[in-house]
Amino acid sequence: MNTNDALPSIRVVLADDHDLVRSGIKALLTMIAGVQVIAEARHGQELVTLVESLKPDVVMTDISMPGMDGIAAIAEIHSRQPEVRLLVLSMYDTVDFVKRAVANGACGYLMKDAPPFELEQALRSVMATGSYFSPAIAQRLLQPSEPTVDDELTHRQVEILRLIAQGRASKEIAFELGLSPKTVDVHRARIMERLRLNDIASLTRYAVRKGLIKP
Hints:
The chain is 52% helix and 13% strand. With 215 residues, it is α/β, with parallel strands linked by helices. Keywords: DNA-binding, Phosphoprotein.
């Protein structure tokens, strides 16, 4: 009997906003016995929709994506389908990134520069034990960290901060989130007050440091 036939099938939905990166990861995943990439997403909202309809075993997602980011998508998927394993595949290894991902429902965290064999190790682990953290990430989780952005701001404030840091004007943000420009301005003032930051440049640097937008 072929030992590969005994391996359980793992259905994966893959999310990354860079087509080339996503194609490379997919190529590596398809080389793993029993693993099938059943769909790909370029942003968080597309990922949520695909997972809702396809009900995969595992989601592998980047964090920084346009529109709904990976953290928001993870939270949405976890609330709707808690049985889906959510594995982050990221270039960021700071404690803040990892803890935000886990707090929102991720059960594993893998670096994009990990050796190819670790992809299989991570998938098998999340299916068998429900979690996977590379040794380097596990070590970082033991370190003390500053409060995460979710500790400091409300969900709505995080949304608005991310859009501000992307250079969006109040009217654009208001239109996208279904708010009035005045409400957006009030939120911005409260964000600045809560974070003790006085200008847009400082807000942008904070957003980059917390992983809300890419550097």
